Task: inverse folding
């Protein structure tokens, strides 16, 4: 019992740390660009709900809130509702130039990508722990699609149906999320020369699931050194980004079930908790690397999701700002504010539904 409590406590701590770092990076991006553009930041908050601690410095209140599942960087006049009957003052979000507002809005997601790249760079330099694999076949399966197309051990895969491949994991990702059956065009490199093969992946069902296989059982491990660590850090972050938007595509197409969708509770239990349980048997370095990988993926997720053109998200605000650039004048702030308010209501309802979905997935039936 004591061991279970200890493991749950460690899971909660890791969850809070990971979410905290990712959220702080996002909100700090907004904060930094707002300050640089002369926009007053009313509150910089980490977490949601009632404040546990708050300190005011200048015009900004810095708050740590009860629930570690989000954050906010609130600007003066940002919602467009408070100032609809009065002229925006100096320091108001509405008073800043359209490009200042665009840079402030975009800065949050951009800082998430920067954080993800920094984490990936540290991970790539831990090659004694992390396994990085180039898309170089070390074992072409006899009787598989690759072998039938004339591919051999040592061939480096360059692209699949025109989509560039940098890491071995991208092959599996492509087969899972992008391949729709039929012929597959593979560009590969052998002895410095490029070749094109057209093959038909095999559909295989086994104990771990079912799917299409290219016919390559393993790939070449690589240990980046020097400047190549920068390159492979980019590849790792790029893979997380591809996995994110391809997963969104699978969700839209109905290829992802309700059990595959997780909110904060699901991430804490099914991602952070289970990953910790698996990694702890291999030592603290394995735990650290696993948690860093989760942080990198969440940071990329947050960056991409916030750029979606949905009201209340950064992408939704960006749509209104780009319309202002095209029209030469802003959308009436009270109308924009109402749209974002409706978006907030939608996300509050969605959070409740996701919360109960997490509980449904966690609690045994």
Result:
């Amino acid at each position: 019992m004591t061991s279970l409590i200890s493991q749950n406590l460690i899971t909660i701590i890791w969850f809070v740390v990971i979410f905290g770092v990712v959220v702080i990076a996002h909100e700090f991006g907004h904060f930094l660009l707002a300050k640089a553009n002369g926009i007053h930041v009313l509150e910089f908050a980490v977490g949601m709900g009632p404040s546990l601690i708050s300190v005011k410095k200048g015009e900004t209140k810095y708050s740590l809130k009860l629930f570690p599942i989000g954050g906010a960087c609130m600007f003066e006049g940002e919602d467009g509702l408070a100032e609809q009957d009065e002229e925006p003052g100096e320091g108001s979000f509405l008073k800043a130039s359209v490009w200042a507002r665009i840079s402030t809005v975009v800065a949050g997601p951009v800082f998430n990508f920067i954080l993800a790249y920094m984490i990936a760079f540290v991970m790539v330099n831990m090659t004694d722990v992390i396994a990085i694999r180039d898309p170089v076949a070390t074992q072409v399966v006899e009787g598989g699609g690759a072998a039938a197309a004339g591919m051999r051990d040592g061939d480096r895969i360059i692209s699949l149906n025109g989509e560039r491949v940098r890491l071995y994991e991208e092959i599996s990702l492509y087969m899972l999320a992008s391949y729709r059956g039929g012929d597959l065009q593979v560009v590969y490199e052998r002895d410095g020369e490029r070749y094109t093969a057209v093959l038909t992946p095999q559909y295989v069902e086994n104990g771990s699931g079912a799917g299409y296989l290219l016919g390559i059982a393993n790939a070449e491990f690589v240990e980046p050194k020097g400047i190549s660590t920068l390159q492979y850090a980019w590849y790792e972050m790029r893979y997380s980004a591809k996995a994110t938007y391809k997963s969104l595509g699978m969700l839209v197409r109905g290829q992802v079930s309700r059990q595959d969708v997780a909110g904060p509770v699901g991430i804490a239990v099914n991602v952070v908790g289970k990953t910790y349980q698996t990694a702890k048997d291999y030592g603290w370095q394995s735990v650290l690397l696993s948690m860093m990988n989760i942080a990198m993926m969440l940071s990329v997720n947050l960056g991409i999701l916030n750029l979606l053109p949905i009201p209340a998200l950064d992408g939704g605000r960006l749509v209104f700002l780009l319309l202002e650039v095209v029209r030469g004048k802003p959308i009436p702030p009270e109308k924009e504010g109402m749209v974002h308010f409706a978006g907030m209501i939608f996300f509050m309802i969605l959070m409740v539904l996701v919360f109960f979905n997490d509980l449904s997935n966690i609690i045994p039936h």
